[in-house]
């Protein structure tokens, strides 16, 4: 073959390739796709499910259109609900009336209604795990309440500060690193715990605020009385019960506790923080504790967890004896009573009291998981699993049945490191009204 | 094109890494997990050690046959008959290997990114690559590999580093997994996963010197072992048993969970490109060696006329399994359970007999010389 012919052939082939290889069977124009960012599952009639999609409107999110700058809240999303026998058949049905093809790869949250979660979510989780488009990092949520709780929750989500609703979900669900009121309940984590013998799955609790006006606010649904407290602290609430009003109706606080694939209970905000501490996933958070010396006053600490907890499990008389030592650090944020807890003489009193506060909380929370919920949310089974040499020995041991009989020995080591910008507290001077 | 080129240890190592480590991105980690459970990584270490020991003995046996491949040695030992027999067995092995991998690579590529494309269409791209590289010759292929393999190994290292935050030591317990019998007895047969070592027995004419051959073998096998062990360890420490045996594409599943902040995720898209490159290198190399062995076995002058027919045969064979699961189980359970016979037993047998015969010949020659001297 002459070099001229060869060159002509190469040019010809290149030209043909340019035309024929611009797309293939899988080509999908970005403009032809629509990206749902959240999906909600409610119980349908019979064996079917009700599926709600929250779909991002690209022009609004990107700040297109006349106004520019992007829409906020509901403007940037649209909703659709369909009742279908399964997830994928539902998507098929939606595809038939939505002008663009659904692309599920941008899904950030998967919301199950409480009703559905209590029935069991195994078949849905399996389907989501098998699908290539669903992301393993999507968060799993449980919407509290009866009926179509998932749909209700999704329709109430109105991000005020974000024009991009996907970013809103990412930000609000990763806030656990600085609040401790939720956890990383990614689809992958949920699935791994669901099929695992050593730990059980958790999902973030979500709901809509019950209060319309600030005058309506009450703490009736707070969990503080169950804990024997006189007043509620910030962690004594679950999603939907928080004493707040505002334009953002949706709330995220606490965790839904599962046994296998079925929801069996709930953690409030404080229990969620303690759960994170037990797993070593607690970042930092402001925590209020009662003042050790003066009644009705509180001390505010910025608690951090810089070391993983020491955990061990022994079998004593056929029952698991679980020992945990949690290491915490704290900075003082506020001392309402004005007592000088910053001083070297007084700091021990505060430390010991705070240690006892967390110790009681963790023990109460673990007792609840063992006796009431019968589910190992903190994954102590992982410690137990390490004591066996082979998988068969571990499975024969049947940890899940033994966990409810567990005894807990909790130790907390809390060190107050810094006093904030004040080295000591001075009480206010003056005469109280009515005092001579 | 038909002149035998020679290359150094770097190229030989790259070739070995391409051929053996490739299965790390296929089903190797989940196969190890099926046998060893949480102890899949111990099994990977065990199999790697077995292979390196096996190679040590093979290299000792090979020392007498510098610059000769296994077909040449077959010819020396048993004339044309044994040469053809050895060649045919290797041809069958390479055809099966290429067919299984062509199907698996294409199917998995389809699962990852080309869900709507017909399997034949995806396959065609790999087959075209095989054909073009065969026409371009071995030098182009080996040069391509010697540039891309180091880049791939560095990317792989970064991939493993990115996975470290997700690893949990708890997931590899109980430490002996599905039991010592599974790991050390059943697992020993998984030496077949290193069957691509056979390419090393075809390399001597290209590397000439025994020292280069030995270095390539040991260094190549060590790097392959590190790759396979590290990926298996990452996989089972991130996906606890029994989740670890569910994954069709372990490396893809691992890439899906890589996330740094809100801005860096979806690393699997990079993996798809790397995947295609590795698949291309693997299939082209095995196809080239198939043509080379065919030519050598039947003393042909050129192999170019064989390129199209053999490519067609491989593509047709790879389409025989009706479903992906059949293809994977045929490869993992049937092919790999017997491939060690061709990859390890056949060369070792030939080498042992050839060594014994050459020693006997030498002794006979020495005795004849002595008797001639005595007679004189």
UniProtKB/TrEMBL annotation, chain A:
Residues 26-203 form the Spore germination protein N-terminal domain. PANTHER family: SPORE GERMINATION PROTEIN B3. One of its GO terms (cellular component) is membrane. Belongs to the GerABKC lipoprotein family. InterPro entries: GerAC_N (IPR057336), Spore_GerAC-like (IPR008844), Spore_GerAC-like_C (IPR046953), Spore_GerAC_C_sf (IPR038501). Keywords: Germination, Lipoprotein, Membrane, Palmitate, Signal. It comes from Acetivibrio straminisolvens JCM 21531. It is found in: Membrane. This is Spore germination protein GerKC.
């Amino acid at each position: 073959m002459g070099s001229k012919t060869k060159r002509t052939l190469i040019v010809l082939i290149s030209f043909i390739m340019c035309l024929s290889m611009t797309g293939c069977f899988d080509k999908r124009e970005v403009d032809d796709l629509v990206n749902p960012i959240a999906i909600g599952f409610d119980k349908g009639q019979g064996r079917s499910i009700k599926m709600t999609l929250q779909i991002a409107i690209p022009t609004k999110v990107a700040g297109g259109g006349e106004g520019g700058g992007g829409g906020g809240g509901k403007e940037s999303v649209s909703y659709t609900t369909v009742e279908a026998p399964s997830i994928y058949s539902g998507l098929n049905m939606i595809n038939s009336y939505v002008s663009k093809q659904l692309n599920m790869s941008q899904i950030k949250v998967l919301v199950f209604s409480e009703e559905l979660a209590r029935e069991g979510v195994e078949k849905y989780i399996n389907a989501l795990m098998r699908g290539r488009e669903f992301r393993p990092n999507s968060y799993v949520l449980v919407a509290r309440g009866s009926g179509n709780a998932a749909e209700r929750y999704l329709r109430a989500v109105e991000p005020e500060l974000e024009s991009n609703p996907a970013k809103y979900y990412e930000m609000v669900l990763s806030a656990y690193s600085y609040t401790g009121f939720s956890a990383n309940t990614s689809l992958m984590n949920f699935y791994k715990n669901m099929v695992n013998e050593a730990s059980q799955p958790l999902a973030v609790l979500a709901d809509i605020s019950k209060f319309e006006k600030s005058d309506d606010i009450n703490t009736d649904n707070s969990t503080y009385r169950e804990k024997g407290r006189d007043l509620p602290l910030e962690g004594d609430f679950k999603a939907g019960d928080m004493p707040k009003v505002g334009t953002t109706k949706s709330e995220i606080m606490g965790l839904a506790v599962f046994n296998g694939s079925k929801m069996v209970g709930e953690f409030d905000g404080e229990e969620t923080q303690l759960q994170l501490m037990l797993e070593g996933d607690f970042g930092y958070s402001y925590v209020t504790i009662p003042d050790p010396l003066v009644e009705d006053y509180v001390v505010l600490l910025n608690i951090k967890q810089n070391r993983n907890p020491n955990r061990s499990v022994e079998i004593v008389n056929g029952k698991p004896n679980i020992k945990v030592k949690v290491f915490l650090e704290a900075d003082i944020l506020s001392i309402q009573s004005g007592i000088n807890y910053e001083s070297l003489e007084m700091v021990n009193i505060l430390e010991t009291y705070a240690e006892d506060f967390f110790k009681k909380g963790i023990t109460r929370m673990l007792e609840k998981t063992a006796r009431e919920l019968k589910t190992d949310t903190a994954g102590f089974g992982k410690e137990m699993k390490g004591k066996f040499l082979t998988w068969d020995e571990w499975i024969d041991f049947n940890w899940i049945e033994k966990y409810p009989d567990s005894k807990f020995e909790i130790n907390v080591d809390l060190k107050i490191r810094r006093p904030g910008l004040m080295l000591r507290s001075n009480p206010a001077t003056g005469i109280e009204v009515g005092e001579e | 094109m038909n002149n035998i080129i020679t290359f150094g240890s770097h190229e030989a190592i790259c070739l070995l890494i391409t051929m053996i480590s490739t299965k790390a991105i296929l089903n190797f980690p989940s196969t190890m997990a099926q046998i060893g459970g949480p102890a899949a990584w111990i099994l990977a270490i065990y199999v790697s050690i077995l292979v390196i020991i096996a190679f040590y003995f093979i290299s000792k046996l090979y020392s007498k046959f510098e610059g000769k491949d296994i077909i040449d040695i077959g010819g020396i030992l048993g004339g044309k008959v044994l040469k053809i027999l050895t060649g045919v067995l290797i041809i069958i092995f390479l055809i099966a290997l290429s067919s299984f991998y062509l199907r698996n690579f294409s199917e998995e590529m389809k699962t990852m990114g080309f869900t709507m494309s017909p399997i034949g269409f995806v396959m065609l791209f790999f087959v075209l690559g095989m054909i073009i590289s065969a026409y371009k010759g071995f030098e182009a292929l080996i040069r391509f590999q010697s540039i891309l393999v180091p880049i791939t190994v560095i990317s792989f290292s970064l991939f493993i580093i990115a996975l470290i935050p997700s690893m949990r030591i708890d997931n590899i317990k109980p430490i002996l997994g599905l039991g010592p019998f599974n790991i050390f007895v059943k697992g020993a047969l998984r030496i077949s996963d290193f069957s691509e070592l056979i390419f090393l027995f075809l390399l001597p004419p290209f590397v000439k010197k025994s020292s280069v051959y030995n270095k390539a073998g040991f260094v190549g096998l060590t790097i392959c072992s590190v790759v396979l062990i590290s990926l298996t360890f990452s996989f089972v420490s991130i996906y606890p048993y029994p989740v670890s045996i569910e994954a069709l594409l372990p490396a893809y599943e691992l890439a899906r969970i890589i996330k740094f902040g809100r801005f860096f995720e979806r690393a699997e898209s990079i993996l798809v490109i790397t995947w295609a490159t590795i698949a291309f290198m693997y299939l082209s190399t095995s196809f080239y060696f198939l043509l080379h062995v065919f030519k050598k076995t039947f003393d042909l002058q050129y192999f170019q006329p064989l390129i199209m027919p053999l490519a067609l045969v491989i593509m047709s064979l790879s389409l025989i399994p009706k479903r992906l699961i059949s293809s994977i189980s045929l490869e993992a359970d049937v092919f790999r359970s017997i491939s060690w016979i061709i990859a390890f037993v056949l060369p070792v047998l030939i080498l042992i007999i050839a060594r014994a015969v050459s020693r006997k010949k030498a002794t006979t020659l020495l005795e004849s010389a002595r008797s001639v001297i005595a007679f004189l």
